[in-house]
Amino acid sequence: MASQPNQQKFDLQLLGRVIGLARPYRLIFASAAILAVLLAPLGVARPYLIQRMVDDYIFVNDLEGLTRLALIILVLLFVEALFRYVFIYSTNWLGQSVIRDLRVRVFQHIISLRLKYFDKTAIGTATTRTINDIETINSVFSQGLVTIIADLLSLLVVLG
């Protein structure tokens, strides 16, 4: 029977070390954070503008104002799509770059180990540890960290 891995608690210090891996890419990280801040109000503005469109222009048959507001919404959608594309691209690029650097470091560490380690450790165990841990860190960067920040900012804009 295979042993179950121990469930570990959240380690803030470990998270800090993982985020430290992104230090060479701080410009991209900052850009993604700025885009997250910009995307938060853009997502909230659309429903507000549609409400104004219905309340202020459709009910009073103001075709000129309706057209103007519709163009504003189209521009807003274009800007939001552009920002979202750059945000997703940059966070994925950041995650992949950090993972590449981490894999190089892990590989350098593995080839520096003595053969005695490989005699004592099953190759499947070492491979699984290496691959799964790095993929978990990848998901933190490409999907988790910046996206969570962006979602929190959106929530603050909606509630604020």
Explain what this protein looks like in three dimensions:
- This protein has five helices and no strands.
- It is mainly α.
- It has a single domain, classed as ABC transporter transmembrane region fold (Up-down Bundle), CATH 1.20.1560.
- The radius of gyration is 23 Å and the shape is rod-shaped.
Radius of gyration of CA atoms, rounded to a whole number: 23 Å
Major sheet characteristics = none
State the secondary-structure class: mainly alpha
Please mark out the parts with pLDDT under 50 across 5 or more consecutive residues, or reply none. Answer: none
Q: Give the tally of structural domains.
A: 1
Query: How do the SSEs run, as a string of H and E?
Result: HHHHH
Which band does the percent of strand residues land in? under 5%
Fill in the CATH topology: ABC transporter transmembrane region fold
What is the mean predicted local confidence, pLDDT? 83
